[in-house]
């Protein structure tokens, strides 16, 4: 009866190229997600270049036209419906 039991490891086929590609792609995706989460959690100190920029005058803001005039020109006033009596 002891000779009936087969304790040999099961035969597992070799993974195919697509299975390997999927496996390693999932590992890379998980690592990328961990890096993104850590980038959100861990604060990065600002460099000196970023601190120097706000002190300079911004010519783009001075030459920029207000957008409110452009928005109001593109929007047409709604016609009021006549009341039926």
From TrEMBL:
Residues 48-85 are annotated as: Disordered. Keywords: Membrane, Transmembrane, Transmembrane helix. Its main location: membrane. It is a single-pass membrane protein. GO terms for cellular component: membrane. It holds the Pfam family UPF0239. The keyword Transmembrane applies. This is (raccoon dog) hypothetical protein. It comes from Nyctereutes procyonoides (Raccoon dog).
């Amino acid at each position: 009866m002891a000779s009936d039991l087969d304790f040999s490891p099961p035969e597992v086929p070799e993974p195919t190229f697509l299975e390997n590609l999927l496996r390693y792609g999932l590992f890379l995706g998980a690592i990328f997600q961990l890096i993104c989460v850590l980038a959100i959690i861990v604060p990065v100190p600002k460099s000196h270049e970023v601190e120097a920029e706000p002190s300079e005058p911004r010519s783009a803001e001075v030459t920029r036209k207000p957008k409110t005039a452009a928005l109001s020109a593109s929007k047409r006033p709604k016609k009021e419906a006549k009341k039926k009596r």
